[in-house]
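so the lab meeting is tmrw and i was supposed to have these ready like two days ago... anyway. pasting both below. for each one the top line is the aa sequence and the line under it is the structure tokens. i havent really looked at them closely yet so no promises
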Amino acid sequence: MIREATPEDVPVLLAMIGELATYERAPEAAQATEPQLKEALFGPQPAAFALIAEAGDAPAGFALWFRNFSTWTGTHGVYLEDLYVRPEARGSGHGKALLAALAKICVDRGYERFEWSVLDWNEPSIGLYRSIGAQPMDEWTVFRLTGKALHHLADTSRANGA
């Protein structure tokens, strides 16, 4: 079963985010707190949304996503930030069901794109994505600006009066 997350799910979402970070070999990178996640998902202006996959009454996985926008299509899209299925629930269709639920959101809302990133060594996930018809964007490279470089660039903007 796939359902929308509720505020009561924040602790289990945070736990699964930690599990995902460990799986992705970066447990120290998961620094979000319950108040931050609750505000992002359920505050007055939600910045993100989450779906929960359940096996019986137990959370088996989640998908956390947000809307993006394409200037080329003139429509919103879905960007999947995180997809995670707990090890004991893998192979039971939860990942595909979460992806299908997000595809339905796209179609129902007239969004023309559904995108995400995957670590290049994560062959099980890449196999799943290819099996549903997803295509890698080989000509694109993801860039990220964080930490000192982010602050330095912001300081440059302030110096220019912006």
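ok protien two:
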Amino acid sequence: MKNTRITALAAVSLAAALSLTACGGDDSGTDTSSQGSSASNSSSNSDAKSEAGSGSGSAKAGDQQSGSGEDLTAEAAAGGTKKSGGKVTFCKTQDLAIDAQDAAPDENTGRIDITMTNRGSTTCSATGFAGVDIKDADHTSSPIERGQAQPRVTTLKPGDAAVFNLAYDIDTSGESLASPTHIVVTPPNETHTVTLKWPAGAGDIKGAYTDVQVYPTHTTN
């Protein structure tokens, strides 16, 4: 009997010890696995946020560069030029004193000089081709075509003048069918016009109004 009790007690003690060891091993394994998973998730989330933040910053920088490009393009399209930190705008018709004079160099070459003087208070640009129509005695109006010439930069300070020319061949036969009475001028990049009298003494136009050509502005200096 005595031996049987000792053996039974020993078996219970061994079972209890094994149970405690198993429990301790399970706790330790579970904690380690959980911590490793948490650390991995945290690292992945941190990397994802870092990449998103970097991508967002690049998009903003790109937007700013695009905006600058659009500003420069718009400025170019407007035709202004930078000067002393300001923008030179095109001359307004209302700020220009405009007149026409006969400037024929000889008996066969007709030329009308049209001068535009800046009577405004700021510097402006008169660069380009003016729009020109010639009115005839029969009350018709004919647009004048541009001559083959490249525009030159024509910037006018207050009081400065620019000139452009109408060129044609003079009819010396006395049989010209053109009877010009007025010149309608629209300054470069403007929509408002002025009407000038055809210069007295200017030679007769040979051919039709389609044979007259207008040339771009240039300064008188």
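from a quick look at the 2nd one: DSSP finds one helix and 14 strands in the chain. The first strand starts at residue 81 and ends at 83. will dig more after coffe
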